[in-house]
Amino acid sequence: MQTRKSLLTGAVVLLAVALSVAQAQEPRRADATADEQAKLPTPQVELPPKPFKTAEEHYKYLLEKAHGGTKHTMSTIPVWGGLWASGNNTMPAIFLVNGSLSNAWKPGAKIKEGVLTPPYEKQYRERRAEVEKFGEQLYDRLTNCEYPGVPRWLWEPYIKEFVNMPDQSWLMNDMMNETRRIYIGAEHVNTEAKHFPLGDSIGFWDGDKLVIWTKWVNPADYVRGMPLTSNQFEMVETWQERHNASGARLLVTQATFYDPLALVKPQSAVYTHESRPDLKKDGVRIRTWECDSSSNSYKAADGSTQFYLPGDPQYKNPRGFTDFPDLPGQSLNPIFDAQ
Amino acid sequence: MKNPIVVVAAAAALVVGVPALAHHSFASYDVTQQKLIEGTVTQWNYNNPHSWLMIEAPDANGEMKTWSFEGAAIVHAARQGVNGTTYKKGEKIRVVMHPMRDGRNAGALCFVMKEDGTFTRPNDGICDSEAVHSRWEQKGWLSKDAKSLSIHPASE
């Protein structure tokens, strides 16, 4: 009995210490980490109304069902104002047994067989073997400021804003200044005759639901620790604002991935974004995302991630460089320098 | 009734948080070790894709060197109560970080203590800063006698 009382007292002391530490600052928000994101509620994955071989078939079927799409005006179009942050998603469950945001990039997860084509499954096994051996993937392609692109854009855990207009929707992520432009009621256009990190996206409205078809995407990945995508990747998404159980605004994205070179058959996942008015209180605004001028991480000869540090000839000081050091007012860091 | 000890411990676990995902791998940091560095702020680059805190502090030979610590992207740091004015030039601070595996004067930030005892956590999820801070306090590793460059295992 005495032991039980001592243990209980110890546990209460532990909680008190933890609480006092947490109260030294604002408590960490509920989606600040991938593990915490993984605990957020996720709607059910909605599969396409019937199997489609291609994204084009899928999109055109939905367009026909919507009778060519709802023609919104600025007064009727859904407004998804404010700041948003990535919530939970089911994408890892496509590729891993019991896959979730918690184990997507960490050791211990088992690959689902037969989802990826043989060459892509082989590559994915090599990637996961590296995760098992070193605790995580040794090198992420974003290290050298490569654009996340789609489908990775859907989860990148930074801040997003969404602007809907009758002829375009702008889906903006602060990371790498990646804005997806969705051309409403338009056809695909590719005068550059190339692929792009975000591809080319067209869409239509079905009431309050935005339907998007994206193609001509660069080969990329779903996220670190997840499989690669090929340059034949295409995606059909539906976006709709809903409310979660507590009444908070939620954007739900049902996505179906078509990638005949990488996927044995099309796969579907649901992603969420949560409205975050609290970020405005923190003073968060989307600024120009620096990377080329501020990132000193690089891929070392052994394939690992390394960093240039002050004193290294390759080091880039994000606040320190000017071609005109003798000219007044050329410092990139005037506020800090004035201290 | 549920075991109250389990309930309390679970609540404590919820308070302390867990690692996140950044734009690059953290494999070049030794997450099994945590190191204390005490020095003077020379730069606070509150930048994307990662913030970096630079301080001047003695190395193992007593020579003053620049030490560099990687922290969170702006939005993640902001969510943890840190912003561009949190650290001032010339301010004395203590940093607890995961050192680089190659032994250079750098590491991944876990938490920063200011001279007045204020706890700040601009880390990018490599470290469960509240839990680590609590452990360092309990072990006495943050006492005023604690030596800069002292290193401790991340777990028992």
Secondary-structure map:
The complex is a heterodimer of chains A (339) and B (156).
Chain A: H1 2-23, H2 34-37, H3 55-65, E1 84-89, H4 92-95, H5 118-134, E2 159-164, E3 168-173, E4 179-184, E5 200-206, E6 209-215, E7 234-243, E8 249-258, E9 267-275, H6 277-281, E10 297-299, E11 305-307, H7 334-337
Parallel strand pairs in A: 4-5
Antiparallel strand pairs in A: 1-2, 1-9, 2-3, 3-4, 5-6, 6-7, 7-8, 8-9, 10-11
Chain B: H1 4-16, E1 33-45, E2 52-58, E3 64-70, H2 74-79, E4 92-99, E5 106-114, E6 119-120, H3 129-139, E7 151-153
Parallel strand pairs in B: 3-5
Antiparallel strand pairs in B: 1-2, 1-4, 1-7, 2-3, 4-5, 5-6
Q: What does this 3D model show about the protein?
A:
The complex is a heterodimer of chains A (339) and B (156). By secondary structure, chain A is α+β, with helices and mostly antiparallel strands. Chain A folds into two domains: 1-17 and 294-334, no CATH class; 35-281, Calycin beta-barrel core domain (Lipocalin), CATH 2.40.128. Chain A is built from seven helices and eleven strands. A nine-stranded mixed β-barrel of chain A has the order 1-2-3-4-5-6-7-8-9. Chain A has a two-stranded antiparallel sheet with strand order 10-11. The longest helix of chain A is centred in the first third of the chain and has 22 residues, at 2-23. Chain A starts with a helix and ends with a helix. Chain B has helices at residues 4-16, 74-79, 129-139; strands spanning 33-45, 52-58, 64-70, 92-99, 106-114, 119-120, 151-153. Helix content of chain B is 19%, strand content 31%. A five-stranded mixed barrel of chain B has the order 1-2-3-5-4. In chain B, a hairpin with a 4-residue loop joins strand 5 (106-114) and strand 6 (119-120). The model of chain B is unreliable at 1-20 (pLDDT under 50). Chain B is globular. The longest helix of chain B is centred in the N-terminal third of the chain and has 13 residues, at 4-16.
